[in-house]
């Protein structure tokens, strides 16, 4: 992350401004800490990766899933590629195409204020969505793609992908989806693929997604749900139960959306996965109506 990017992130505790104190390498953060100018909370930066979360707040399923992802980061992508056709009778590529268009990336246009367009992927993992996003973006746009994850192992894999494939404009940090280290209404697209069902408080995570998204911005959430409209064999149900071992109620959390959610669309994109899309309204319009 560049030093110039610091004004785009805030303290996870109080959303105060962060000041950098530490080593730099060609304008990039290296080793040191970010200190909140409001509450004085100190957030460490190691090997250029800010850690903007409290370890004590990582609990339950959050901690369990991090252990799993940290333990097998290099196997995640190959396993997804190989097992998706076996379990769901479709390919990983078709699965991703099922939600990609809901981000409406081709509709993005330069901002009137001249600021870069900002995209946020929560739970970026190994960065498997990066090439798809770059393919869909209109040429010539000034784009910042922010990727956040709680797994150091998966972020290491993402860094390898970025270095190997030359993805530009990607900023990575460690953070907790329940307390996003970003200001209100600061992103033009927000999405989370394959993680919300494992959060200890998915309602809170959805509220945070809505908070950091600009009004009328598509917010896309994808995770496991066994298609309720189709019959399933015992083997299919057993495979789904194995995949969703972390919960007894893997489903689309439409009922947990914040009150200001609008344009809600819940779709079943494969046998095992849903896609939930929603937006938030402009607070000024809500005030006028009230």
Automatic annotation (TrEMBL):
<dbReference type="GO" id="GO:0008168">
    <property type="term" value="F:methyltransferase activity"/>
</dbReference>
<feature type="domain" description="Methyltransferase type 11">
    <location>
        <begin position="120"/>
        <end position="217"/>
    </location>
</feature>
<dbReference type="Pfam" id="PF08241">
    <property type="entry name" value="Methyltransf_11"/>
</dbReference>
<keyword id="KW-0808">Transferase</keyword>
<dbReference type="InterPro" id="IPR013216">
    <property type="entry name" value="Methyltransf_11"/>
</dbReference>
<protein>
    <submittedName>
        <fullName>Methyltransferase domain-containing protein</fullName>
    </submittedName>
</protein>
<dbReference type="InterPro" id="IPR005651">
    <property type="entry name" value="Trm112-like"/>
</dbReference>
<dbReference type="InterPro" id="IPR029063">
    <property type="entry name" value="SAM-dependent_MTases_sf"/>
</dbReference>
<dbReference type="GO" id="GO:0032259">
    <property type="term" value="P:methylation"/>
</dbReference>
<dbReference type="Pfam" id="PF03966">
    <property type="entry name" value="Trm112p"/>
</dbReference>
<keyword id="KW-0489">Methyltransferase</keyword>
């Amino acid at each position: 992350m560049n030093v110039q990017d610091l004004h785009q992130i805030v303290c996870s505790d109080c959303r105060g401004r962060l000041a950098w104190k530490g080593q730099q390498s060609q304008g990039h953060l290296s080793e040191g800490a970010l200190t909140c100018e409001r509450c004085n909370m100190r957030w460490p930066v190691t090997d250029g990766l800010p850690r903007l979360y409290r370890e004590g707040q990582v609990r339950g399923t959050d901690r369990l899933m991090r252990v799993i992802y940290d333990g097998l980061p290099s196997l995640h992508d190959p396993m997804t590629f190989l097992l998706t056709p076996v379990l769901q009778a479709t390919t990983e590529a078709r699965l991703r195409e099922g939600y990609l268009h809901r981000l409406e990336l081709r509709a993005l246009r330069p901002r009137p204020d001249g600021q870069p367009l900002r995209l946020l992927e929560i739970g970026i993992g190994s960065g498997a969505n990066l090439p798809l996003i770059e393919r869909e973006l209109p040429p010539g746009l000034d784009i910042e793609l922010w990727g956040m994850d709680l797994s150091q192992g998966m972020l290491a894999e993402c860094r390898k992908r970025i270095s190997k494939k030359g993805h530009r404009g990607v900023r990575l940090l460690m953070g907790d989806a329940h307390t996003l280290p970003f200001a209100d209404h600061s992103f033009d697209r927000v999405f989370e693929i394959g993680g919300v069902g494992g959060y200890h408080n998915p309602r809170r995570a959805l509220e945070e997604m809505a908070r950091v998204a600009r009004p009328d911005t598509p917010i896309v959430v994808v995770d496991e749900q066994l298609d309720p409209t189709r019959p399933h064999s015992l083997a299919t149900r057993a495979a789904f139960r194995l995949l969703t071992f972390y919960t007894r109620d893997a489903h689309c959390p439409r009922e947990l959306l914040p009150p200001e959610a609008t344009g809600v669309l819940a779709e079943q994109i494969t046998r095992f996965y849903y896609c939930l899309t929603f937006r938030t309204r402009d607070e000024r319009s809500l005030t006028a109506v009230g």
